[in-house]
Amino acid sequence: MDESRSGQTGRQDAARSGQEPLHPQDPYGTPPYGGPGPWAPAPPVQHPAMPTPPAGVRLPAHTAHTTPPHGTPAPHGTPGHGTPAHGTPAHGTPGHGTPTHGVAASGTSSHGTPTPDVPPHDPGGTGHTAAWPTPSGHAPATPPHGGPHGGAPSGPGGGRYDPWAVPAPPPGGEVRIVEVVPRRRLIVVGALLVALLAGCVGGAVGMYVERTGGLVGVKLPQADPESPERPADSVAGIASATLPGVVTLHVRGAGAQGTGTGFVLDDRGHILTNHHVVSPAARGGRIVVTFNSGERVNGRLVGGDGGYDLAVVKVDGVSGLRPLPLGNSDSVRVGDPVVAIGAPFDLAGTVTTGIISAKERPITAGGRGADTDVSYVNALQTDAPINPGNSGGPLVDTKGRVIGVNSAIRSGRGAEDGQAGSVGLGFAIPVNQAKRVAEELINTGSATHPVIGVSVDMTDRSEDGARVGGGDDDRPGVVPGGPADKAGIRDGDLITAVDGARVRNGEELIVRIRSHRPGDKLELTVERNGKERKVTVTLGTAGRE
């Protein structure tokens, strides 16, 4: 240390004495104590007051802080680091009026040129410098060249240099920070847009496919056209052959109206139906006949019989009539297939099928009104659906022949209005009986009833048989000279069978007798005083009504 000081002192003395120094001045030599040197300490690192600009942000070129290359002269008026100011002795004690350590006086350069004010040195080493002298009314000036120790130059705004600070805008202008979108971000956004578009298109296509079943029109498989011809014994064949001979009847009169069915008997226009269908027209009513072809004509009542529940209607001036062939009800067997055709609930041309469920089923129908008769029918029972409106329609066999006239059904409970549907219990008048009655109605206008000449007790519910006599009127139990009287039947006898068929009451006895013609012979089983005997009776005629 002492040697260094002595060397410096010697150079200063030589300078003052005008002698040439023994060695040239070393620019990298140790400056005088307290003077600035080339290795001035760097300013302390400060944290950025603002966030670092995003990658890709371009900063203005004039605001970038770059270090000049080595050897570049400092701006005028700014002393270099470690270099004494112009006019300042390099060594030795500063002259009179000259600041120590080669620094020019405040406000004046060594040549008399005004220089920036330099704040006083911090003698205490506290790290703070005195305020810059400023004109009145202005904020204190900041040192233009670094901090208190002659370090790096200060940053914009007069503070310490902040490498993280946002560059100051150029004078008179405004810095626009343009964000450059990275290429990767563009790719991601594009991919998302493509995926969104694909999802929309896929959803639309899926909805269309769900509604229409495919991208093309739906074409369902279908069988090739076949011949309309059907076997004659099939249901379709039977219906095709029978329907042209079936008609629908609309009847109005006597404050009542109704709908029923009928079928053509001959080419003269005679139509057979039930008596209860046309009874409203018996006293001047109107009957409208509708054929299967849709042709409508007026009909007139030829005759009817309430006891058999049969009637004949005639139409005139109709050509192309299709009479239905008649079968033989005696040849029918239980289990034979049958087809019923009619207009249930005014639905013309309805075809149903079934079988013969039973034969010779004694039933009674009608008699509910004051002017209606009770019908006694030894009926054919079928499970082919028969409903209101089917009455009077044909019941045909597999050959299309009429074997019965649909007349009655057994309905469930609560069917008091007569409009209940079928429960599989339908009844038809055997065609053999219908044929005889129809012939009589056409030929004479009325029908005859076979009788045996007895009256029976209709109130007896013992189910043991038909009791002769016991009526409430004054008529005798056995008509004198009648068929029963001639066969030896007496009042009080119990008739238990007809031709071997069991009879349980008076209604069944009447049904059995009316299923035959007048003049037929019947074998009756009669019980008297606990003894049975068989007698033969020839049926008589009750007369024409």
Automatic annotation (TrEMBL):
Compositional bias annotation for Gly residues: 147-160
Top-level taxonomic group: Bacteria
Record bears the keyword Transmembrane: yes
Compositional bias per record (Low complexity), positions renumbered to this chain: 60-102
Residues annotated as domain PDZ: 453-530
Residue stretches of biased makeup (Polar residues): 1-11
Compositionally biased residues, Pro residues: 29-54
Region (Disordered) location: 1-167, 461-490
Transmembrane segments: 186-209
Segments of skewed composition (Basic and acidic residues): 461-476
Gene3D superfamilies given in the database record: 2.30.42.10, 2.40.10.120
Any matching Pfam family: PDZ_2
Protein name per its UniProtKB record: Trypsin-like peptidase domain-containing protein
Alphabetized UniProt keyword annotations: Hydrolase, Membrane, Protease, Transmembrane, Transmembrane helix
